[in-house]
Specification:
Elements: E1 6-8, E2 11-24, H1 25-29, H2 34-40, E3 48-60, E4 63-67, H3 77-82, H4 90-96, E5 106-108, H5 114-117, E6 121-123, E7 129-131, E8 137-141, H6 142-149, H7 165-169, E9 173-176, E10 180-183, E11 186-190, E12 199-205, E13 208-212, H8 235-251, E14 255-257, E15 264-267, E16 269-273, E17 276-279, E18 285-286
Parallel strand pairs: 4-5, 5-8, 8-9, 13-14
Antiparallel strand pairs: 1-2, 2-3, 3-4, 6-7, 10-11, 11-12, 12-13, 14-15, 15-18, 16-17
Bound molecules: zinc ion.
Length: 289
């Protein structure tokens, strides 16, 4: 039993911090003035804020599902410094929860940006990228894979072919088109917005429900509908989907999981104003590092 673990009906959920890094704060909050976002996310001397990748281990129906692979370990020392990347990774986190990479049946990637898909592959002794989860089926939206392999100019810098081409070569990628149940009680739902093929993950068991938001709402600060990231390729779609999905999560008190929040792994939410939501403090589960 891991302390951060959450029961959802018959499903075991273990949040795992697979990466901890720093990224320019301005890029995480788009047009929001720094005087506002800095209250939520203090910046360092290089204007960077601390971010996690909070992945999820989900055990359901005899299957091991892993949501979001994190940044991985393929970075050189200069990149490690740029991102102030700590040396944690998905494999170490999973082992702590009693799971080895060979045990993972399904990996769900909300999208293929390097901070989400990077941990899917690692470098072998010759320095070539190879799959980290040798048996897993990787579930990605068809549109995401297409957009990652032939990215538009503004999207290209967010993808690294080494994160997913080895998966394609090994026949491990399984694309879906739209909404689908991919394991017992585990549903992917395409939202688009952040990328055209971005998806969120809904977990259902025993009448209980949880929702992994991916980069639709990366941190609790982004519970403000108009606090969009510079990385959002379709800002209006992010706004609309965020409004729709958060209103539903609030109404039915669904536990939501934040992919990049350095403090909060998950929480229930309440409406704070017509255009923002807030955490229900008594339900907050910390991101345990
Ligand atoms: Zn991200």
């Amino acid at each position: 039993m891991v302390s951060s673990e959450i029961g959802l009906g018959d499903v075991r959920i273990v949040p795992i911090v697979t990466s901890r890094f720093r990224l320019d704060g301005g890029s995480m909050f788009g047009s929001v003035p720094k005087v506002l976002w800095e209250r939520k996310a203090p910046a360092d001397g290089s204007n960077r804020i601390v971010l996690n990748v909070n992945s999820l281990l989900v055990e359901t129906g005899g299957q091991v599902v892993f949501i979001e692979a994190g940044m991985g370990s393929k970075f050189d020392s200069k990149q490690m410094e740029i991102y102030a990347l700590s040396d944690r990774d998905a494999v170490a986190g999973l082992r702590k929860a009693g799971v080895s990479p060979e045990d993972v049946d399904i990996v769900i990637l909300t999208h293929l940006h390097f901070d989400h898909a990077g941990g899917s592959t690692g470098l072998n002794e010759s320095g070539d990228p190879v799959p980290v989860f040798p048996r897993a089926r990787f579930i990605v939206q068809e549109e995401e894979l297409r957009g990652a392999r032939e990215p538009l100019p503004l999207a290209a810098g967010s993808y690294d072919l080494r994160d997913f081409e080895p998966l394609i070569e090994s026949g491990l990628i399984e694309t879906v088109d739209g909404d689908e149940e991919v394991a017992q009680g585990v549903f992917v739902e395409r939202t688009g917005g952040h990328t055209k093929g971005h998806q969120v993950v809904r977990l259902l068991s025993g009448g209980e429900e949880a929702l992994y938001l991916g980069d639709l709402v990366p941190t609790a600060a982004h519970l403000r509908l108009n606090w969009l990231m510079s990385w959002d390729l379709e800002p209006e779609v992010v706004y609309e989907e965020r409004a729709r999905i958060l209103a539903d999560a609030e109404r039915r008190q669904v536990r939501v999981f934040f992919c990049h929040d350095p403090e909060v792994a998950s929480s229930r939410i309440n409406r704070h104003s017509p255009s923002s939501y807030e955490l229900v403090e008594s339900t907050v589960r910390k991101a345990v590092c």
